[in-house]
Amino acid sequence: GLNSPFCISIAVLIIGFAGAYTQTGLVDTRPVTGPMVEESTYHELQADSEDDGTRPVSGARIVRDFGSAIYFSVITWSTVGYGELYPVTHARWIAGLETILGYIYMGLLVSVVVNAVFLRKNKQNNQCDQEDGECR
Hints:
Mean pLDDT: 79
Shape: elongated
Number of strands: 3
Strand order of the largest sheet: 2-1-3
CATH class: Mainly Alpha
Largest sheet: 3 strands, antiparallel
Radius of gyration: 22 Å
Order of helices and strands: HEHEHEH
Number of helices: 4
Distance between the termini: 22 Å
Helix content: 55-70%
CATH topology: Helix Hairpins
Strand content: 5-15%
Low-confidence stretches: 40-45, 47-53
């Protein structure tokens, strides 16, 4: 089955990526329901961004809180990517790496689950053979 080191490594990686996103910041395009982030934060990111279409849209704000970073990390890891948060500058490379690792880990997870199902089925079949063909 799933072992603890596998699950712990996923959690550590997601939290580690979230920590990186709190440092780089994420552009939040959701409607503002609370106080706006300071305008200087927006301009700071604008200055750091390359002029390649990755600059934040007008009215967007930069978030650096851990809750948003964890949320973004989980949806990136699972390759869902809703689009209301997105990375800019070098955080795009971090998100790309996280997506690739997410694919790899999801593949490993599927293989572990399928293997466990087949092992259980094989064990049941062996019991049937040993007990005059009756399965329990």
